[in-house]
Amino acid sequence: MALLVRLLPLALALALGPAATLAGPAKSPYQLVLQHSRLRGRQHGPNVCAVQKLIGTNKKYFTNCKQWYQRKICGKSTVISYECCPGYEKVPGEKGCPAALPLSNLYETLGVVGSTTTQLYTDRTEKLRPEMEGPGSFTIFAPSNEAWASLPAEVLDSLVSNVNIELLNALRYHMVNRRVLTDELKHGMALTSMYQNSGIQIHHYPNGIVTVNCARLLKADHHATNGVVHLIDKVISTITNNIQQIIEIEDTFETLRAAVAASGLNTVLEGDGQFTLLAPTNEAFEKIPAETLNRILGDPEALRDLLNNHILKSAMCAEAIVAGMSMETLEGTTLEVGCSGDMLTINGKAIISNKDTLATNGVIHYIDELLIPDSAKTLFELAAESDVSTAVDLFRQAGLGTHLSGKERLTLLAPMNSVFKDGTPNIDAHTRNLLLNHMIKDQLASKYLYHGQTLDTLGGKKLRVFVYRNSLCIENSCIAAHDKRGRYGTLFTMDRMLTPPMGTVMDVLKGDNRFSMLVAAIQSAGLTEVLNREGVYTVFAPTNEAFQAMPPEELNKLLGNAKELANILKYHIGDEILVSGGIGALVRLKSLQGDKLEVSSKNNVVNVNKEPVAEADIMATNGVVYAISSVLQPPAIRPQERGDELADSALEIFKQASAYSRAARTSVKLAPVYQRLLERMKH
Question: What terms describe the molecular function in GO for this protein (predicted)?
């Protein structure tokens, strides 16, 4: 019976569906923001909401958690005020807003919510007030008194001069022939108005703001006996044209109109959907260098990418933006849409000159600066916006500029400007060839690179890819910033000049006079073949000074013992390639001798076993060489470890002796073996 009692609530919840669970149906963003405002205002009494008011204006916002702590709207300071939540009123002598507003008809409710001007204009028409006071169920999106006052004089005059047609139609367009509460106002929906069934666009944003034809909903869900009233901050008007039709009739979009036609995007802009077009004016196109503009206009793919970068995937009215938010374009990029006071910003720049032109399939904001995506740019243009301008100047001086502005599929490995803080190399044949080896013969994306991959350069070299826990490196140079993928080329920003390998490890050591003693030692130890063959080695190479710093007797002893010399040298050779950019804080690298080397990096200084490296990242075809100023010694066996080894040996001997003891008593052949084991046990 107890089990049935415990299971009964679960059975009821499953039978009634998710909406009937204790949590109830999911709240809309508007309801969540209103709930937060209630929580912030509850210390002032029941049904009190905290409201953020922009200083110096009458603009008020229900607050969410982030805005509550920032105390800013569009970067402007706000003050917190406390007022009755929608649907409640104060009672003299009592705390908060304990009383629900009395229900009355729509006409009287207009006065309660602060839309007395709408009441006044309703009175002027002959038909509308009786409807608002009579039976039925209606929704009215009522403009505030301030909204009516902000209408241009000529618009207002045209309405009031013909009250039974123009004014009546305008008011009916604000009405819906049924009750619609905020939980039904979904993002992107259209409501049918009472004026010729014209559509009203609804947008319900994640930050809790609701717009009606881009007018912000100020006070919502004021119930009446015959419907509901929502107070909005603008007088709204009918929408007749789609985005494409607006482009075709606006003179300021002449260049945009031609570009859209050439790209074939007119079918998108006149089709179904809810888009935001950041529409570049003629002036925006004129700001672009003629060569760049002509190149893009003459390249259908680049042109399509350019225009798609101006189309947001959803409609975004200006009133919905109270802080920065990332929005995705049809091109796949993200734009940071924000605001600064009354100005909208794109990627932090106030380039929107006219906002909220409504279309049947979205909204248009006029912009006076072109938003060129990376995918429509040359390598030169990508580099101009990156921290690699010094490197690009070197490519230009070396006569390699055509590779960066043409249609060749390339990946440019461009060292960042800080690499050249001590000066740039002279442009000669060697430098030119080195720069050619910073150009990969394909347009790559770093996310597809893998460890051990080889890349062909325009200079004829093969470069290796090394993938480490926190680094992605090509030879000795590691990628320092996200890729920039252009029309034909991709830009990798690198943390240093790349050094292509110039022979095997043995070739590198032989070609550097600093390592002559090491080369002789390697040859004496019989390790020449190891360092000449294919492999992946990290060699910590002691310089001549390192050997000469050893006591002469110790050095002669080491060089005279080939086995011990080989053991010491193998301890200097790691069994994988580790370039300095892949080290991080600390890496324990296994050596060919068997023990591990501790390699660390701090403040651009590499240490091995806590000894500083004199020179890092000397690249070879089968590894990398670090010049070091001391000869490394394998870790000595600690006394405890030595004792453990002796104990293990003694135990093994004892086991063998025990096994032979019984047999030795009966076998003449096994007796000597038993005697030798006893002798070992004595030692």
Answer: cell adhesion molecule binding
